[in-house]
Amino acid sequence: MNIDYDYYRRFYYVAKYRNLSLVAKLLNTNQPNLSKLMNKLEEQMGCKLMIRTNKGIKLTEEGERLYNHVAIAYNELRAAEAELSSENDMSSGMVCIGSTYTALDYVISNILTKFNTLYPNIKISISDNTSEKTQDILKQGLIDFAIVDSPVKENSRFKQTIIERYEEILVTASSSKFSDLKAIRIKKLFSLPVIGFSDYFGASDYHRQFFSEQGLEWSPVIGVTSYPQILSILLKGTGVAFLPNKIAKPYIEKGILNEIKIEKLDLPKREIVLIEDVEQHSSIAARKFISMLKS
Prior knowledge:
Blueprint: H1 5-17, H2 20-26, H3 31-45, E1 50-53, E2 56-59, H4 61-87, E3 94-99, H5 101-118, E4 123-128, H6 131-139, E5 145-149, E6 158-166, E7 168-173, E8 183-184, E9 194-197, H7 202-213, E10 222-224, H8 227-235, E11 240-244, H9 245-253, E12 257-262, E13 270-277, H10 284-294
Parallel strand pairs: 3-4, 3-5, 8-12, 9-10, 9-11
Antiparallel strand pairs: 1-2, 5-13, 6-13, 7-11, 7-12
Helix pairs in contact: 1-3, 1-4
């Protein structure tokens, strides 16, 4: 059975209002054409759907059953149309972003002002978390996309785009007892109290792999969960730590932190990665933000 959608649409209104004259005006047609179309629908369905009376239309048992199904389908279609129309309208909406602290500082903060200027009615929600947790939230469909720092675990659902690369540098507070230290050999690093990420964080995996390649074990004395925590401990004059250069640079320029060079060795660059879930539909607002990130 292959019945035109318009037949169901017109039947929906006839069954809802039970008045051919009223529905004809509502649908911008005339009553004879509407009546003819209802007759054709009954022919194709192979049963009587309605009875015309002096008081209007009365649905048969088959007509009532059909209307119950058509009403659900038609209202769902109208809701979908409204939803898609809203998503394609930049006069309202929301972009939900999952981010790590580094990605927020390096990438997202630079885009926010420009995006808000162009689309002032679009709300933005940012959840700051670990790379692993942010990827889990994306998989659950709770955010539109994720921007995290490497390393990123492979997942067939995720499309990855490198947005930016950055370097980490070793620093200590100018008030610490290590402030006169200008350079150090990598094998001597752990003779100092190193502050670093706890074992279950991606940044810890990065450091563990790098130091393993140097024949060393990554073993920080103080384990933390974020760069702000590292900064807080450093600024109290405790230990040494690796920080992204963009985070450390303002403190170095003000004389609050000192950089310690690692002799004859360059740390590999890390990456800020945009992650999109290919199985998830993105609103036009989210796509606009992603476009700005990639430009």
